[in-house]
Structures are given as structure tokens and as C-alpha cells.
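Deliverable D4.2, example record:
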Amino acid sequence: MAESSKSKPVGTNKNRSYLLWSGIGESVSDILASPGMVLPFLYLALGAPQFIAGLLLPCVKAARMTIEVIISPYIKVGERARLAMIFPNLVIAGLLALVALSAESVPIWAAIALFIAVSLILGLCVGIWALGSNQIYGTELEESDRGNIVFTQLAGSCILAIIAVWLTRDLMAGDTAYQRHRVLLWMGVLSLLAACLFLFRLAVTKPQPDPDDKEKPQEQSAGFLSQVAQGWKLAVQYPWYRKFLIARIFFLSVELATPFYTIHAATYHMSTPHILSIFVTATSAGTAIGALLWRRVIQKSIRYTIAGASLIACFSALMAVAFDFVGLASNPWVYAGVIFFLSFGIGGVQNGRYLYLLSMSSETERPYMVALGDVVAGIGGIIFAAILGLVAQLQSVLLPLVALAALNAVSIYLALDMREPSKPLDETDTDDGAKAPQSALAKHTKHHFRRHE
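Output generated by the structure prediction step:
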């Protein structure tokens, strides 16, 4: 025991605290300046076309996937990884301040361009941050600490976000909905700056990467297209992976649904006082409570977790449609219930589909499967959001919710139709009867479910 304690790097306990609080600050900002709810709502408050509002979140996700592919070989342990967390946070803080200060004072076409550009840059920054955080969390924290810290961050940030929006109610004043609710962006800026202060104090204790690894970045970055091609070959080889790719397209109807609820809610609540405070509260509560539940349920069955989460998302869509018909959608607290259940379901689908691929794939084949899955999700997300956005713009804001309910129902069926990982996860059958080695789920802890995953 004495030897093990001596072998721990000096500052490990402080680093654990710095990472905990920096993560809470980042997560609070993610909630208060969410590209799924807050940014689309502020965009719509300017009177901009609804079509673009549905594309903001897919733009963030597509930009994140792209930058992670390009620079992942260059983000190693050490100081570079720490800077990869600090610099993106500062850029995001600057972007939020820019939107808060200027969006209402420019022509509508410029505001549209601003929100699209901010979403793309936000996605790039989050992608860089994710690579740095995965390295730092993997090297500076013991395996037993990672899960506890990440879940503590999630719960703590949700609680702090709820407290923040209600303590600042008196600041939400102004002549327009945009002026009243842009306070959330300023709180997001402050949260990110606080996170950066903790990251500046972080003392990296792990050595820099071995100089012998210099050739690896060229090899890895040059091989993304070949990874996608190899992933396609694996899709042909593995029946379970083909089913997963098809299912993941439909899972987007849960993961990317929030902006369309925002569009629908904005038609009733653009002038409702403190409406974003109410919705942020509902989102935070649904996310936190969902995380506690899914963390337990997912240990029993991953596919039932995804199916159950999709069912809850389907229920939230049907609630929104029903409330619209009976006149209850104009009640902010009733609509907050819809947002609560949606957030509850999104967490289960996101964590479930990530852990499913982790459980079913071997270490050697996983990068190829992830690469193809990211391409499918990125392209599918843009198409999905564009079609529903056009429907909302040209027909009715209610029709996308009807479509989401139907797509969520298909997601339930596809999740149940997926093969449940064996316990223990030792091997997976292929079409030709071969066996693919499996790695234990518990060995792979990734800081994966935060920051617009």
C-alpha cells in the first residue's frame, strides 16, 4: 500500500479536483447554450426561417466528427492534450459572447450566416476538446475514478444549471424575446471561463509521447477513407453490424429531435416569460434522472435500454402532438413535461448505441466500424434535419413531431431486433461462421456522453 501511494504522481488529487470542476463548468455551459434548444430558440426569436433551426445541431455533430478524424493522431498525452481542452473552451466562450452581442443588431441574412458559422465552429471546438479530454481523463485519472467523476459532473452540472437559471430570472429583462433570453449565453461564457481557470491549474503528470511515434499521425490521418472502406467490408461480413448501421440512422430521430420540439414550442412560447429557464430545468432534470436509470438498466440489456429510451422519446412526441390538439401546449409547465421525457430518452439512446458497438466489436475492427458509423450518422443527420426542417417551414411545425413519433416507433423495433451482446462478451458470429474476438465492456471507459455527443 505504501509503495502504491508513493508511485502516484504528485498532484494527482488536485488534478482530480481540477478535472471534476472544469468538467462541471463545461457541462453547465453546454446546457445553458445548448445547440439543440437554446441556440435554435434564440435563432427563431430573431424571426429567422425555421428550416435552418433544425440544422444547427446536425452541423455541430458533423463538424465534430470531421475534426476528430483529421486531428485525432496529433492529440497525444501531455501539454498538447491540456491545451486541446483549454483553447476550444476559450473559442466557444468568444462565440457565445459574439452571438449575445451582435445577432440582433445585424440583418437577418447575416444573423442566419452567424448562427450557421457558430454551429460549425462550435462543433470543431467540441471535437478538439473531446480528443484532449479523452487523453487527459485516460492518463491523469485512475480507471476507478473516471466513471465516478464523469457521472458526478453530469449530476452536478444539471443541478447548477437549474440553480443558475432561477437565480438570474431578474436579469432576463428586455423588449424582445432575444434580449430576455440571451442572458443564458452570458452564463455559458462565465461557466467556460471558470472551467478554463481550473484547467490552467491542471498539472500534467504523464510524460510526453515517445519520439518513436512520429510517423503514426501520417499513417492514421491518411487512412480515414480506407477505414471507411474497411468498415463497409465489415458491414457486408457481419449481419449484426448491418442491422446496427440501419438502426443508427433511425436512432437519429431521437438524438436530433430536440430542435423540432423547440420549433414547435416557440410558436406558443416565444413571448412567455422565463420559458427557456423552464425548459432548461426540464432538460437538466430529465438528463440527470435518466443517467441514473440508464446506468443501471444498461448493465442488464443494451438493446432493451435503447428500445426503452426510444419508447420514451416516442411518448414525448405523441404528448406534444396531443397537447397541441387539446390546447395544453400553450401551458409552459405542461410542455416542460414533454421536454423532460425527451431528454430522458435521448440519454438512453446515445449511451446505448455507443456501448452496443463497443460491446459487439473487437479492438482491431472497432476503428473501422466507428468510422463508417460516423459517416452514416453525419450524412444521415444533415438529410434528416433538412427534410423535417423543410416540412416545418412549408407545411406545419406539428408534422415533424408526427414523423418523429413514427420514426421513434421504428427505432424501438430495430433496437429489439438487434443481437444482444453475449455475457461474457467473448465472440461474435459472422456470415462465414468465423468468430470475431470481443473485449470486455468494463475495460473501455470513455468520456463520451457529454458535449453534444
